[in-house]
């Protein structure tokens, strides 16, 4: 099994997925809002901050030559149609001690053309920092003894992360600090908060994805 992120295409798909996750006006951002509003209506609770809940995001990394009847692969990735989301109502389903207002991420990769998708990584989306903290599966011969490679994917558009962002990320994941103590970088790459922001297309992200914008 080829490790997720080994190719420029994989890196581009992960990068543009993070761009969509940060943007409330993207397809997945609007779906988050729909789920949140429906949940609050069902529980008869007031609508406040939709990111006060935790969500489960599934990111699909298709084969680079995969074709679809309805649209091109490029169009689908530009729109973020390869991302699914559901509200987490029971955190016991999650294989992480998920921090409050952190979001669980599963990445599924299509190894062969027209083939099935298989799990390639799991991790956490930390919205204020605009980062994905992922554990890439590098050896899954025996699922019980799978080996993982941790990586952190930063937002491709944000050039200047604070010098202590990695420390703050670790402290949040280990629940030493709350999400409110993290710097808000997402405000620059969310059209709901920054109307002047223009999210890049798949082609732009792919050309920039020669290496992970992370550590």
Low-confidence stretches: none
Share of helical residues: 25-40%
Q: Which overall shape is indicated by the principal axes computed on the Cα atoms?
A: globular
Instruction: Tell me the strand percentage band.
Output: 15-25%
Instruction: Give the H and E element order.
Output: HHEHEEEEEHH
What is the terminal separation in angstroms?
A: 23 Å
**How many structural units, i.e. domains?**
1
The biggest beta sheet reads: 6 strands, mixed
Structural class of the helix and strand makeup?
A: alpha+beta
Q: Let me know the number of strands.
A: 6
- Tell me the strand order in the biggest sheet: 2-1-3-4-5-6
User: Taking Cα atoms only, what radius of gyration do you get, to the nearest Å?
Assistant: 17 Å
Average residue pLDDT: 92
Number of helices: 5
């Amino acid at each position: 099994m080829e490790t997720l992120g080994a190719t420029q295409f994989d890196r581009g798909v992960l990068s543009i997925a993070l761009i969509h996750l940060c943007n409330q006006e993207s397809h997945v951002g609007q779906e988050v809002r729909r789920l949140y509003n429906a949940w609050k209506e069902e529980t008869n609770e007031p609508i406040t901050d939709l990111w006060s809940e935790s969500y489960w995001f599934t990111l699909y990394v298709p084969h680079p030559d995969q074709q679809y009847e309805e649209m091109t692969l490029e169009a689908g990735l530009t729109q973020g149609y390869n991302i699914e989301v559901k509200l987490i109502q029971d955190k016991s389903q999650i294989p992480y001690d998920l921090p409050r207002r952190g979001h669980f991420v599963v990445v599924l990769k299509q190894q062969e053309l027209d083939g099935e998708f298989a799990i390639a990584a799991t991790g956490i989306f930390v919205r204020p920092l605009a980062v994905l903290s992922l554990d890439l599966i590098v050896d899954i011969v025996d699922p019980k003894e799978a080996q993982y490679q941790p990586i952190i994917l930063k937002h491709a558009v944000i050039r200047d992360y604070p010098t202590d962002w990695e420390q703050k990320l670790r402290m949040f994941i280990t629940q030493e600090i709350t999400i409110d103590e993290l710097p808000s970088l997402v405000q620059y790459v969310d059209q709901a908060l920054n109307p002047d922001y223009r999210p890049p297309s798949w082609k732009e992200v792919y050309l920039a994805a020669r290496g992970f914008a992370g550590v």
